[in-house]
Amino acid sequence: MWQRKQTVFLIVAVVLTVICLCMQIGAFSAAGLDVAKVYNLWFTDPIGKRHFDVWPLMAILLPTAALGSYTIFIFHNRKAQALFCALNALLIVGWYVCFFVVAQMVGDKSWGAVDFRPHWPAVLPAIALILYLMARRAIRADEKLVRSLDRIR
Fold this sequence. Notes:
Layout: H1 5-22, E1 26-30, E2 33-38, E3 43-44, E4 50-51, H2 55-72, H3 78-110, E5 115-118, H4 124-152
Antiparallel strand pairs: 1-2, 1-5, 2-3, 3-4
């Protein structure tokens, strides 16, 4: 299990997803000053109160991390593993769509003329997306190799 390169890809993808879940992913700024800090579950307004309007981000990324962890341990079933990698990739694309929609809706609703600045942890799911796709490719290559060896016997 651990000697397969797709396992390493999956572990790194899960770790990056969990890091993104725990860190600030953006900020709303007006006139160069941060008005609000955005996390996956909440954002804080200028007085420090937490608002949970951005909860869909957490609702998408948390199952992605859990499903990625599960995918690591089902190495005996390569077809299901490849399917879960594709599902995780779709969930991450959905997270980015939700990320941009939430940034527009919360900024327009709350403070008027503010700019949204994503922070570097918002890039981590994109790296995890690439790793999930690389893992899926490696899993499919393993499946192809096993099928070719079965034909030889």
